[in-house]
Amino acid sequence: MTKYGVQYTDAALTGYNALSPGTRQAFDRAVDAMSYSPRTHGDAIRNNPDRRTAVLAG
């Protein structure tokens, strides 16, 4: 199974760095799971299925 790369915007990285350790761990698990099947998570950006927006942990 292919694992895809995940890229964050600067704003997303700022938010990620502000997460508590427990929330960051849950988020990292969600991102890892999503990276194997990204097209099943979130919505395409501007109808491009290779660019997605998704809520993974909250």
**Separation of termini?**
27 Å
Unreliable spans: none
List how many beta strands DSSP finds: 2
Biggest beta-sheet profile: 2 strands, antiparallel
Shape field: globular
* Mean pLDDT over all positions: 84
What is the chain-wise order of helices and strands?
HHEE
The rounded Rg comes to: 12 Å
Helix percentage range: 25-40%
Query: Strands of the largest sheet, in order across it?
Result: 1-2
Strand percentage: 15-25%
Counting DSSP H or I runs of 4 or more residues, the number of helices is: 2
Structural class assignment:
alpha+beta
Structural overview:
Helix content is 38%, strand content 16%. It is built from 2 helices and 2 strands. The chain has a two-stranded antiparallel sheet with strand order 1-2. Strand 1 and strand 2 form a beta hairpin. It starts with 9 loop residues before the first helix and ends in a 5-residue tail after the last strand.
Key phrases:
58 residues; alpha+beta; 2 helices; 2 strands
Quick recap of the structure?
The chain is built from two helices and two strands.
Could you outline the blueprint of secondary structure elements for this entry?
Blueprint: H1 10-17, H2 21-34, E1 43-45, E2 48-53
Antiparallel strand pairs: 1-2
